[in-house]
Design a protein that fits this description.
Strand content: 15-25%
Mean pLDDT: 90
Largest sheet: 5 strands, parallel
Structural class: alpha/beta
CATH architecture: 3-Layer(aba) Sandwich
CATH superfamily: Response regulator
Helix content: 40-55%
CATH class: Alpha Beta
């Protein structure tokens, strides 16, 4: 069975490594983009189980990227879960991201089990179950991200 593929929009290479490791733990594939512009090209080429986006990006920021992704979906008719993972804990940033069309929001750093629960909410498919998302890993309370 093919793993779910996540599009991860993150310009920080260290953070990309963290997400790559989390995807390995939870049996997900990952495609990385370092900018909103690259992400818009990526969604034109393939479908993803979910899009994870950072708020601070070079070029167009996370809010504008989400807005443009949702506009593109209006053309294609295919809706994808968009999850904001950001170091910002400002209420106005979360409000702007949600207004742009984000489905879920989590601040960094976060514990591994919160990431697992986020994936369960947004990408779990009972017809093609990913058992690794159902199991709590040994290091579930370890904090990751920044």
């Amino acid at each position: 069975m093919n793993p779910a593929t996540l599009l991860i929009i993150e310009d920080n290479l260290a953070q990309q490594l963290v997400y790559r490791q989390l995807c390995e733990i939870f049996d997900c594939a990952a495609v990385f983009c370092s900018s909103g512009e690259d992400a818009l090209e990526a969604v034109a080429l393939a479908r993803y189980a979910a899009v994870l986006v950072d708020l601070k990006l070079p070029g167009i920021d996370g809010v504008e990227t989400v807005r443009r992704l949702r506009q593109f979906e209006g053309i294609t008719g295919h809706r994808t879960s968009i999850i904001a993972l950001t170091a910002s804990n400002r209420a106005e940033d979360e409000k702007a991201l949600r207004h742009a069309g984000v489905d879920d929001f989590m601040t960094k750093p976060f514990v591994i089990d919160d990431f697992r629960k986020l994936l369960l909410r947004q990408i779990y498919n009972s017809e093609r179950p990913n058992l690794k998302l159902l199991m709590i890993p040994n290091n579930a309370q370890r904090s990751v991200g920044y």
